[in-house]
Amino acid sequence: MNNHDPQMRPVIRQLDEAAANRIAAGEVVERPASAVKELVENALDAGAARVDIAIAKGGKALIRVSDDGCGMAAQDLPLALARHATSKIDGSDLLDIRSFGFRGEALPSLGAVGRLSITSRAAGHDGAQIAVAGGRIGPVKPAAGNRGTMVELRDLFFATPARLKFLRSDRAETQAVAEAVRRLAMAEPYVAFTLTDEDEGRVLFRADAEQGELFGALQTRLARVMGRDFIDNALPIDATRDGITLTGFAALPTYSRGAAVAQHLYVNGRPVRDKLLTGALRAGYMDVLASGRHPAAVLFLTCDPHQVDVNVHPAKAEVRFREPGIARGLVVSALRHALAGAGHRASTTVAAAALGAARPETAPPRPYQAGHAAVRSSAPAIAASLAFQAPGFAEAPAARVEPAPQDDGATDAPLGAARAQLHQNWIVAQTADGIVIVDQHAAHERLVYERLKAQRDANGIATQALLIPEIVELSEADAHRILAIADELAALGLVIEPFGGGAVAVREVPALLQRLNAAALIRDILDDLADQGASDRLRARVDAVLSSMACHGSIRSGRRMTADEMNALLREMERVPKSGQCNHGRPTWIELKLADIERLFGR
Ligand SMILES: Nc1ncnc2c1ncn2[C@@H]1O[C@H](COP(=O)(O)OP(=O)(O)OP(=O)(O)O)[C@@H](O)[C@H]1O
Ligand SMILES: [Mg+2]
């Protein structure tokens, strides 16, 4: 438009409803999976007990969602297609939202970008049908059908060819649809779901309705959707703080993934991709996972709807907490607590995979209730394991059996009695009903790391004063924000002071972090604060240094150990939380039950 000529005034027009709907559709319906999400959410809001979804060509040619919910009467149908028309809120309190939908936008948006037809019947009414294509609404006609609703969307984006071009292959779109259905199915264990590919006549996903109490139903549903393996390797989470409840399952660190693909977070039943919550999830696993590994978890946050604003994103994928610190703190502490409580338990998949047969029992007996206090009260074991670091280990033969006293009672301990050291790295121990194999280097590294952290927590972090304070120039707002957490940073060894204007002076740094680029660290911490409202970066860096110190300070593979030393290591592992995995998230030990070994031999 030419705006140079002051005589040529641009004209302001009121766009017609069809154009407005197409624009809204741009936000709400990005690809077939988002259309499926909207339609399934409508079915769930209608109280459906079963939802059947069919697609063709990745959803580009056809999406059909049928439900057995409350249905609509003939006179409702034109309203359902009108913009900002909804039965779910009355508009008086946008912070009291208890349904998936509330914007009254999904159906008109879908009708603006595809050929949409709705067939529905409510109890006590005749069935009816309405169709809309490219924004033009047809008449309501009588139709047959059971109670419930069937929505069919054909030729998605035929009216907006530009969007059509951005779609991926049929296979990729099918996968995205399946993922959207799985995410919704995980939170609704009492609803039955099927997803069928009409091109191939194949059922892509099916989950029958679960019965019984919620936690059990949820567990079975998650096993169905995420795989049995996930549940077998997951810790139940159940914690409440200040009116917010967190439930669900978080996998052991040894069950981590290479990408953040197995993380499903829900707020009041709604699947969300929320930076605050994914950041909290990461923080909860901070020192039990190597960077580059991602935890697997399905977590449900439940709170009064007034505590959380869901009206911040057209597709409702993001939410805003009224008190983000509480939500974040709850997730972090619940995960840390559960992981520490898992004691020395490691993933069962390793042994199970080796055996080619899943063992029904997942957790070894846990007589020692592990907690952080245990780290501090394990002084004798620490002394014993420190002895491993003493020089003077003899050159070891390739494999060696240490004759251990046969009746030492230790076989009753969870990790058993050490019987042999093989290939200078594997401790083989006998338990009451099986054998345990320990990776001595990985195990000891973890113990040294936990010990270093305990020392840090007990005595604080040693700091080193800078001869010349480093001045970091920031905006005034940023300087204000970083100075607001100066006490927390000081506790971690980073001492900062205001230096006038937007500048901050760094006076002391953690002695562990020589050659620290304080300016870069402070900017990263500020980014975290902006992103997540909190930062674990400094702690993570200190922990990373402790972790590599532990790696260098621990017994290497190739060291010969006496039976007493091996047993002391096993006992300390039982006492120390998180000893089930090394600092990089690998298991430190596995157990083979006698029954499994017998099965291997076909007995
Ligand atoms: N499967 C269904 N069963 C019964 N009623 C439905 C169904 N789908 C839609 N409706 C009715 O049509 C209305 C409009 O649906 P639409 O999805 O456009 O808006 P919404 O769900 O209210 O809000 P949002 O745009 O946030 O999804 C709903 O409020 C509901 O009353
Ligand atoms: Mg809706």
Automatic annotation (TrEMBL):
Gene that produces this protein: mutL
What is stated as this protein's family in its record?
Belongs to the DNA mismatch repair MutL/HexB family.
Any one cellular-component term (Gene Ontology):
mismatch repair complex
Q: Name one GO molecular function term.
A: ATP binding
Residues spanning the membrane:
none
- Quote the InterPro entries the UniProt record gives: DNA_mismatch_repair_CS, DNA_mismatch_repair_MutL, DNA_mismatch_S5_2-like, HATPase_C_sf, MutL/Mlh/PMS, MutL/Mlh/Pms-like, MutL_C, MutL_C_dimsub
**Domain MutL C-terminal dimerisation: residue ranges:** 418-561
**Record lineage:** Bacteria, Pseudomonadati, Pseudomonadota, Alphaproteobacteria, Rhodobacterales
Q: What is the stated purpose of this protein?
A: This protein is involved in the repair of mismatches in DNA. It is required for dam-dependent methyl-directed DNA mismatch repair. May act as a 'molecular matchmaker', a protein that promotes the formation of a stable complex between two or more DNA-binding proteins in an ATP-dependent manner without itself being part of a final effector complex.
Can you tell me which residues the record assigns to a coiled coil?
none
The organism sits in which domain of life? Answer: Bacteria
A GO BP term, please?
mismatch repair
Record domain DNA mismatch repair protein S5: where? 222-340
Name recorded for this polypeptide: DNA mismatch repair protein MutL
User: Which Pfam families does the UniProt entry name for this protein?
Assistant: DNA_mis_repair, HATPase_c_3, MutL_C
Alphabetized, the UniProt keywords read: DNA damage, DNA repair
